[in-house]
Amino acid sequence: MNGLEEIRTAIKQMVNSLIKPSTIRCKVISVDAEKLTVDVKTVSTELEYFDVRIRAVGGDGVQAGIIPIPKVDSIVTISLIDDIDTMAYVSSFSEIESYKIKVESGAELKLTTDGELWLNGNQYGAMVKINELVTKIVALETAVDTHTHLTACGAGAGTANVLATPIFPVKTTVNSLANNKVKHG
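Below the sequence we write its predicted structure tokens.
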């Protein structure tokens, strides 16, 4: 190496030590989906960053928007806001565990990699297959309305079939049960 190349290499090393990278490749260690943060470890140096925002905006409690939740052990890139180490956010994802779509009113839609779709949580369990449910309810209503009773007709007179009084004059329909704003299939 000649003198000019040595000087160029020395300057490059000095400058590179002063410049922080604009994005840093990291491995996700843990995810806090409620706080919308991750803990990560850099791929190159294993330096750890804690409470890295999943989104650049919204670190002050605002959680509305489309929010990707990364998988643990996946690779992400993080970027620093104003070059401040404690103000990092995930700028790209290699693998997503789930997506949340949330509006300021609090309504939330979550799509998981398992193919599940949650509307404002999952505490009520699965959605009803409305057409099958209505068919079964109508069959029960019909059975109740058309059944007969065996009754005694008096002393020694025998028995008679008496048709039950219908209690479901209007049969159940899909429209009487369904919320047509929510559909699935």
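Residues 130-146 form the longest helix (17 residues).
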